[in-house]
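Hi everyone, sorry if this is the wrong subforum. Our group has a chain we'd like a structural model of before ordering constructs, and none of us has done structure prediction before. Sequence below.
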Amino acid sequence: MKFPCTSCGQCCRKLNRALDNDYHNVVLNEMRDTFPYKTLEDGSCEMLTEDGLCSVYETRPVFCDVAKSALLAGFTDLNAFYRTASEYCNNIIREGGLDDSYLVKF
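Answer:
Right subforum, don't worry. Here is the predicted structure as tokens:
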């Protein structure tokens, strides 16, 4: 099962929020702590381009891939993990004032 990402880019624009979380999972916290890119003053990832795309998408860190993160962190119930991830996504989508069409439907 694939995570139903809507490609809104909010996770890249609000990277500081993702990196500030305590995931209560050793592997996820390690991925967060070893994230290879800088968070800019506005909270965005330094790899985000001016047109809102990830400049390293094809080789992005595992932390940026919801499905790979879940599997590597040992989550066996992907539905539960995706539900939590979609709630996080939808919160930052709403906070960013994006159109509801970007909301993750899970």
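For your construct planning: The chain has a mean pLDDT of 94. The radius of gyration is 13 Å.
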